[in-house]
Amino acid sequence: MLVAGFCFAAMGVFVKLGSEHFGTAELAFYRSVVTLAVVVAIILRKRGTVKSDHLGTHIIRGVIGAISLVGFFYALGKLPVATAQTLNYTSPLFLALATVVIMGERFSPWLVCAIVLGFCGVALLLGPTFDTGNQGPAMVGLFSGVTAAWAYLAVRTLGKIGEPDERIVFWFALIATLVCGAWQVASASFSTVTWGNWWILAGVGVAGTLGQLCMTRAYSTGNTLVVGAFSYSTIVFASLATLAIWQDPITPLEWGGMAVIVASGLLAMRVETKEQIEEAGFEG
Known about the structure:
Largest sheet: none
Structural class: mainly alpha
C-alpha cells in the first residue's frame, strides 16, 4: 500500500498538470486505457484468463470504481485540492464501517482508532475549507469517498474468493474505459493529443496502473483496516511532491499532520501484528 500511495500521489501530480489540457472524464479514460493495456500484457505473459464465475461482482466493482474516479477528478477541478483530497480520503472510514456491518468482520478498537487518527492527520495536513457556492462539488467529492469504499470492499470480496489480482484489475480497467469513454463522448469532444502533452497522459496511466495493481494486492491479501490506514501515505507523498515541483512551502502544522498520518499507519501495523501473534498462540 505504501508503493500504491506513492504511485497515486504521482498520478495526482500528472492529473494536476493535465487539467489544463484535458477534461475530467477524458483524463480518467486515458488512465483506464493504459491500465487495460498493461494488465492485458501481464495476463498474456502469465497465460492467464479473464473468464470468471463472479462477473457480477467485477461489473459492480468496475462501474462503482469508474464513478468514484471521475467524481474525484471532478472535485479536484472544482474545489481546493486540500478539500477534494480530504473528502476522497474518507473512504477508509466508510470501508471500516462496511467491513463490520456488511462482511461481519471484527477488528480491535485500536485499529479503528488508527483509521480515525489517520483521517484527523489528513484534515490537519490539508486544512479543508468550504467556500460559498462549492457545496455541490463538495458533495461529489464526499460521494467519491463513499463509492471508493464500496469499490475497495468489492476488491476485498473478490480477493477472498480467489480471484487473481490481474483479473480484478482487468475487469475494472475494461469497464472504467467504457464508462469514462462514453461519459466523455456524451459531455464533450476529445482534446487533441500533441507532442507537448502526450507524456502527461502517459504519466497518469502508468502511475495509476502501478498504484492500482499494488492497491489491489494490498486489499485482496491484507487486513482491510491496516491497508486503509497506510492509504493515507498518498497525502504525505503528494505534499512532498508539491514542495519539490511547485515549491509550495509546508507549514509546521502540515508537517504535524504528516507525522500523525505516519503514526496512524504504524499503530495499525503494530495492532495487527499483535493480534496475529495472539491468534497464533491461542490456536497453538
